[in-house]
Design goal:
Helix content is about 30%, strand content about 40%. By secondary structure, the protein is an alpha+beta fold. It folds into 2 domains: about 55 residues; about 140 residues, no CATH class. About 25% of the residues are buried.
Length: about 210
Amino acid sequence: MLNPLTVFAIVSAASSLFFFIVAILALRKRKFLGGTIGILLGLLFLSLGALFGAITVGIQGYRALVREEVAAVVKIQPMGSQEFNAHFRLADGEEVSFLIAGDEIYVDAHILKWKPMVNFLGLHTAYELDRVAGRYTRLEDEKSKPRTVFPLSQDKAVNMFHLRQKYALLKPLLDTEYGSGTFVAADKAAELEIRVSTSGLLIRPAK
């Protein structure tokens, strides 16, 4: 089933094509005013279609957030001094493992909060886990010892988080976009839940 945003993109593209055809017919009949209006309306709907299309592509990989929920379950297994394995089971069922250096596991995410005026398009607060890294307790270790960081997000041609940072045009649509991170000690075997809410990330022991 198509989401409202995709429908708006298709309707805008079809409207743009319609007005361009009207403009061409008017210009052939030397109705320059009608042709000009048709071209302007065609460009307007073409821009709207492109905007809706870009948003649709840009939020691929983001998950709608309506309450606190589990974004991933992580099993920690120490492998030696300041080194541990982190096995992730993500919300979409994908499983990945990383060998991480450090005393603590650190996870961060991108969070998009849309304005109420565009909620009717089906756009609500959404999140995407971004990366996992190791973190040392001592600042001296953080400066001198090996650093490990791995991506949790998928590469995409268009990313709404980056688009919002680059283009002020999206400011009226997005209430805010921000990064949120959390960390916890990884010095013993444990099963943890990476949870996300509208206020950010947190880590809790798995139930």
